[in-house]
Amino acid sequence: MTRGLSTCRFLEFMVSAAAYFDVDGTLCGTNLLHPTAYYLANQASALQSAKRLGRALLGGPAMAVAEWRDRRLFNELLYANFKGMSEDRLVVLADEVYRKMIKPRIFEGAGALIDKCKETGLRVVFITGSLNYTIEPLARDLGVDAENLICNRLEFKDLVATGKIIRPVVAGPTKSRLIAEDARKQGHDLARSHGYSDSFSDVPMLSVVGHPHCINPDRALRRLALAYDWPILDIDTPAREDRART
Questions:
Q1: Contact 72, 172 (CB under 8 A)
Q2: Which domain covers residue 194, as residue numbers?
């Protein structure tokens, strides 16, 4: 009986922390624009594709400003380009988008890092501004359960996208709140949990966990990491596809 109780307590200890991963730029050399551009350029007809790409280009300056000032607004402006797109079309294109735009850019060390986290008893969670259609195939390939995805999802009415994101928008400081909520729900100790990102915009999510890690960090995040002695990891830069071209 004592032995069984000890085993239960050990298992409880092993799952009482998590590893929260940003995705774009952290696990693969992509950004939110890559899959979005593919969806817009591959509509049912060439005319529809041209119209969608044209509208997106007109909105480019506003998105560029928002990317620097307000990541939440950037996400909202970007995904507004999906307005009027059928859910069926998104589902049909999802695997193609993953196969052509994302899988070739997965950093070679991504799988090993995720496996290492699992081996140490951490629950692996992806927290990303990407859409669920984009992130689910990646999660399957890297062995992450679908229920462990915190990502953006489009709002639909009569199976047609409204151009809005279901709240909360997964971006910027909101990520830290969502991590705290997930940890509370799952019974995780944030002080023992890990966070991984490449971007200075994710400092709030890195600050909420006890073990922040920077993967291929941008210049601002690298400076902060050096100042606070946060580990800086290189899990293969450039991505496999880019390296093959050099």
A1: yes
A2: 2-244
